[in-house]
Task: structure prediction
Amino acid sequence: MSLSVLSVAYPLAPAGPDAVGGSEQILRLLDRTLTRHGHQSVVIASEGSRMEGRLIETPRHAGPLDDDIRRQAQELHRRAILRALDRWSFDLVHMHSLDFHAYMPPPGPPVLVTLHLPPDWYPEAVFRPERPATWLHCVSASQERHCPSREALLPHIENGVPLDELRTTVRKREYALALGRICPEKGFHLALDAAIEAGSPLLVAGEVFHYREHEEYFWREMLPRLNGTTRRYLGPAGVARKRRLLAGARCLLVPSLVPETSSLVSMEAMACGTPVIALPSGALPEIVEHGRTGFIVENAREMAQAIRQAGAIDPEACRRAARERFSAERMIGDYMRRYELLAQAGAERAADRELIFSVASSLRGSAGRPPTPASWHLPAR
Result:
């Protein structure tokens, strides 16, 4: 089945291989697969994004990000969506952003919304969409359990990572690593406290976006804990540098203070043979197998103890778990089957809710992870 898909990214962050956010990384994998299999992929994303399909960029704001800038970006996204719908015929529109409700397409092709963030970060009204043929899904069982309504919620599709891109021969070193978006909810100050208590070197990598709260967090909570030698902030890390850092680390620290819906960086770490030490936030206990691929801890003191014990985790056990559970090929297959189901329903004007729920559930199989057809294998980089 030939597909034409319009994907819409968050308007205030570029999408592509070096993106910080998980939603932008997932969008990039889907765009790449569609394009390399001969389908039409059109992506609306912030200026500076990198896609393999047709990219429609909206202006990126380099200065401080506030509510006025957010509203302007949303309006530019809304106009870009209308222009794209007027120019091309799409089988499906796939929304990936937190504020998707601010620029929802008018009635027309089916809309699929991937909820990448905690359910209570979205207005409750989005779970009961008024727009016809609009569907939502989560990226983990934990996230799905906390949604306020199942009215338009299809079965979740778990995230995956491109395992082939994470293969490396970098040797292990003694530093712990914390990696991701630098902001209060990610709790990197706890990782620094744990490293200080454990007497362990710690590298912190990630981007500080121009939100006042994020910048104040870095200056107030992180900078005083850094010393430039054993505890260093490296700045943003692109895909190649991130791979080297993950592969060389003694362990990855994930001290998130909010209910994580998934954790691509944890999956990437395991694919590199690196154990993960995480707080029990959201889906993290579903990802990290305590004592086998890392440790689930309750606070910075326990995190420090786990850093000392990280060498007892077998790197091959981490890699094996990644191959068995976190393959991007499995995720891609799930998404493509969902695309085909919703596109077919839209083409036949047969958007019967019970039928779609039934078919979407059955496609996952009894184990929740259907085999991926060879036709939807993730293409080589």
Q: What stands out?
A: Residues 365-375, 377-381 have pLDDT under 50 and may be disordered. The two ends are 23 Å apart (CA to CA). Residues 4-160+328-376 form a domain with the Rossmann fold fold (CATH 3.40.50.2000).
